[in-house]
Amino acid sequence: MKPPPFRYASPTTVSEATTLLAEAEGRARVLAGGQSLIPMLRRRVIEPDALIDLRRIPGMHDISHDGNGALSVGAMVTHHALERWASDHGHDLLIDAAAHIGHRSVRTMGTVVGSLAHADPAAEWSAVALILGGTCRIAGTDGEREIGIDRLFTGPYSNSLAADEMITRLTLRLPGPASGAAFAEVAPRRGDPAVAGAAALVNLDADGVSSARVALIGLAATPRRAPSVEAAIAGHPPSERMEVAARAVENDIAPLGDIHGSAGYRRRVAPVVVARALRSALARAAENRT
Amino acid sequence: MTVATTFGKPILRREDSRFLKGQGIFVSDIEVPGTAEAAILRSSRAHALIKNLDVSEALASPGVVAIVTARDLTDTGIYRPYHKSPPAFADLLNPLEKGHDVPLLAGDRVRRVGEPIAVVVAEDRYLAEDAARLVGIDYEPLEPVLDPEAGLRPGAPVIHDELGDNVQSRVRMSTGDPEKAIADADNSAAFRFTIRRQIGSPLGTRAVLARYETGEGLTVWSATQMQHLARKVIGGILGLAEDRIRVICPDMGGSFGGGVYYEDILIPYVARRIGRPVRWVEDRAENLVNARHARDQIHDVEVGFDNQGRILALRDRILVDMGIANFYGLVVPYNTISHLPSQYRIENYEAEATCVITNKTPNAPARGAGRVTAAFVIERVLERIARHLQIDPADVRRVNLIPSDAMPYNTGVPYRDGNPSVYDSGDFPAQFEMALQAIRYEDFRIRQERLRAEGRYVGIGIAAHVEGTGFGPPESAIVRVDGAGQVTILSGSNNHGQSHETTLAQVCADALGVDIRTISLQDGDTALIGQGGGTFASRTAVTGSMAVSGAARKLRRKAIKIAARRFGVDARRLTIADGAIRDGSGSRVTTLAEVARIAGKEPGGQPSDCPRSSGVEASLEAMDLFASPTVTWASGTHVVILEVDRDTGHVRLERYVIVHDAGNIINPAVVEGQIVGGVVHGIGNALSEEAIYDGAGNLITNSFVDYRLPRARDIPPIEVHHQEFPSLLNDLGIKGCGEGGTVGAPAAIVNAVEDALHPLDLRITELPLQPEKLLRYIHEAEGAARISRPTGQLKR
Amino acid sequence: MNSSVEVRLLVNGEWKTVLIEPRRLLADVLRECLGIRSVHLGCEEGVCGACTVLVDGAPATSCLLLAVQVEDRSITTLEGLDGNPTMAELQIAFHKNFALQCGFCTPGMLVNLFSLLDDREGLSPLSEEEVRVRLDGNLCRCTGYQSIVAAAVQAAHANSGRVDP
């Protein structure tokens, strides 16, 4: 299980990187942490001509918070770096999600943006990004563009990037003070690929849930929002609607089966993860309101 | 006077220091100058003809040294990896046992995914893998047989033409009159149990390094459990005298089953052929696809029982999914048959096992070989009887346990050496009560009521196991003292984590009368000792210890004899302790070191001290050999408490108690380590480990992401309690303990899951029980409960 | 295409330069180019942790890293922690608790647990649960983990009581 030969480049600017990508005409892969890429190389599932390593490009390792709720995560920011930042700044949703990613040693090198670009339908950060209005800054040889995270995923392990493009950073809108957010997951075991996962963000007012966002992983060809769940819970006192909202997830999913869980199993546990994420998000929101 | 100074004490492990510094030497660490590295090209088809094999492009790939395919294997013997049962057994049961050749490299036909097709040797592994990708293979697909029932159907493709059909072997055993007893019983029931395929999965994969030189012959470093058997097989196939072959097993990253594999023969073959040392290090995907596949049995069981839950008769028809070859004859299927009655008195018992060839990896012994499935079946049956009669599962066991006054107890089932299975010592009811007391069974039942009311699903499960240990060929040992008083044990066993450097030294220290710190052990090397059994089947504590003890005692007598002659003392008055030889008054006469120096000078130096006619050889060393007359029976009772997440099917283990009888214990900490490790292996077998093939015969669980070994977080506190009923079959009173932990765990856990969900009448018949599978059972049971259909499984 | 590159690594405190193909995995480079034998390949998939090393002090599975990726960074293996007092406590605790059998997973276990203990210097006592969570990244097929968890907790305790000069 040794990787096939490839050319390797570690450019120092984004434009150099995108030029290299363009030159490879789709036969190059961007290397960030490599925690998904290297296993594929080892099994020779992919045999790219070149790897473009982003490690030497300035700014790629940075996490920055603009003080207005926008958190910018560079393409080389590792799971653990974000986990640590979240822990220092008290963002439970991010802490929850990170804890489900592999194990500590994998989180040292694996990156948040790399995980999104890999477009694994079960990647934890994608659900987080979907409910936090995540946007990706994308650089290509023709310049830069910004897309919503929902427009990144096009299918299992496929994204909407052109051959010369790469994601340079992810921006998340962190939840406000009157809200609560949480992540819940079912996997064969902790750290295994998710069978089903849900991230939930709720805002409470005096009448109940004023707004809710829920996103799902492992329950369709791509990570996705759960509009039926959101509609079912919003505008109601939470306790009354939990069951209905969780069951509504049925309308939001189209699970695919694999070795980690059949479509049927995913369908069965979908309401469970939704309920768990919502419950925990509501509890946090209630706590934040007081 | 012999003072046992170390036996029974938790002496710290003497092998630890090198591993704690990362200085263990595994096969992949051995440095032999000029070594080329091999990759093995394997079949990607379960069953196909090879129409064309083209290595020309691969040969031209950078760094390639050689590529060996079946066409090249014109100068090897035939690998017929199948052994017939011993005559004493065959005469009793007259089993059907058919043999067939297994090609070392597939030539015109492949029979499973992973079957070796070519050995690609290059300057390093990366280059070898590059070249392997360039070998062109044209397959013509054949229909694969992927389960044993399909393999038995008329018209099924025959996998080995020589066999005529897909039945490789069949054995039937009957005691009492089960047919009549079932007919006469108050109650009877029938079940089908399916135990899926599981993989031994040591952390260290296999590896083989071979060097052939005209002068020294063939040297093979291999991660095998049986160096002497490997030598014999390699010699037979390569046409080399055994004395021209040295097989060395350096440190090994565990093993948990298996013996001699294709690669153990292929790599030496290639090294000799190309005249260069060659190493192959198995990668994890190869390991999971190729090595130590186990379990994979279907049981159709019929049981008759009275209204107290006493089993009156049991019949079992077993199908074993053997994969493409049976390397171990009836070892596994007959282990299942002979261990199935377990700790229970079952006077009317009949079982038949049929080994069916399929297009999968060979089914082989792995930790708990054949016994995991046996314990699962009998304990599931008892649990179902309890549910049917609505009596506590503990009470059903109480009426079935073999009473202590019936020991030694002959089960009526011959063992696979042809001897009767006689449980030599033990007290099963006491063991059972001890286990229940340790876990506070009655208290748990009260807590369970309370938690159920809160909507929590906690359960308790019990399983017993027995294990015939100390099986197999004789083990040998040489004990030697040098002139500085250092003691060396050379053993035919093979240490791959069992702490032999500690335990065998303890046995030697006591038998010889020396400080354990003066002793070192060498094993796993055919150059050390002419004959060796190796370490498998929970045997070394029994056979290895007895051989060491025997050799040490011989040595002691010899030393005393020499000292007596030399110093003119009555030998009967001499004792050895702490390396000093003392007379009756306790004053020191000499030391072992000095005796070794004296003996070393013989026979030339001072013939009068030690005349040739004395029968004492001219060095301070002795050899002994031990074979257990038959197996000695270890046993255990497992009790587990767990909680089921009814929404997801996840099981959280809360507490695990095992009471275990390993006879006299050399080192309680080592035994505890074996048992706890075994239990955790069993936890994986119960809840997460399954080798899954797709419809085309690909093993899809071919990484540790998918083949899920238990992790630290999956493990509850495990308490080990010991009973010590000395074995009646060896002087040290030892029974083996390497596998029992694994044997009982799956049964106990599955029983506890049913118990946890008891308001629902779950019918778990399959192992392992992953969350998804459990949730399916829960949904089925909920469906059945909703329409309150009469349950069909229990007759009458 | 197969051209080799020069890569400089700070391995166990010493700068090393190796000339390698970019595809070479850190674990292989450590073992084969630098003779570091404590790094073991168990699963080659980042699951078993037998190849765990520290990259700039943080645990990482060296089977899932290209050596070029960690150019100019500090790589610490078990050999590099020899003599470190925290590691010494761990090694002693492993020995006393029978926390190893075949010894194959042991170096990776020790390195990962070392980083756990090291990170926690001065914090509250290490709980069993924290150890178990950290051991998500290390498989052991022999011991059943119980002794390893006990050893880690014991070492952390001993470590917190130790007064460094």
Question: Would you give an account of this structure?
Answer:
The complex is a heterotrimer of chains A (290), B (796) and C (165). Helices cover 35% and strands 26% of the residues of chain A. Chain A has ten helices and 14 strands. In chain A, the strands form four sheets. Chain A has a five-stranded antiparallel β-sheet. A four-stranded antiparallel β-sheet of chain A has the order 11-12-13-14. The longest helix of chain A is centred in the C-terminal third of the chain and has 27 residues, at 263-289. The radius of gyration of chain A is 19 Å and the shape is globular. The model of chain A has no long low-confidence stretch (mean pLDDT 96). Chain B has 796 residues and is an alpha+beta fold. Helix content of chain B is 29%, strand content 26%. Chain B has 20 helices and 31 strands. In chain B, strand 28, helix 18 and strand 29 (718-723) form a beta-alpha-beta unit. In chain B, helix 11 crosses helix 12 and helix 15 (500-512) runs parallel beside helix 16 (540-567). Chain B is globular and about 90 Å long. Chain C has 165 residues and is α+β, with helices and mostly antiparallel strands. Chain C is built from five helices and five strands. Chain C has helices at 26-33, 85-96, 106-119, 128-134, 146-161; strands at residues 5-11, 14-20, 52-55, 58-61, 74-76. Chain C has a five-stranded mixed β-sheet, sandwiched between helices. In chain C, strand 1 (5-11) and strand 2 form a beta hairpin. At the B-C interface, helix 1 and helix 18 of B face helix 2, helix 3, helix 4 and helix 5 of C.
Task: Write a brief structural summary.
By secondary structure, chain A is an alpha+beta fold. Chain A has helices at residues 14-24, 37-42, 79-89, 92-99, 104-109, 112-118, 124-131, 227-233, 238-248, 263-289; strands at 7-9, 28-31, 50-53, 63-65, 70-74, 135-140, 143-148, 153-155, 158-159, 166-173, 179-186, 196-205, 208-217, 224-225. At the B-C interface, helix 1 and helix 18 of B face helix 2, helix 3, helix 4 and helix 5 of C.
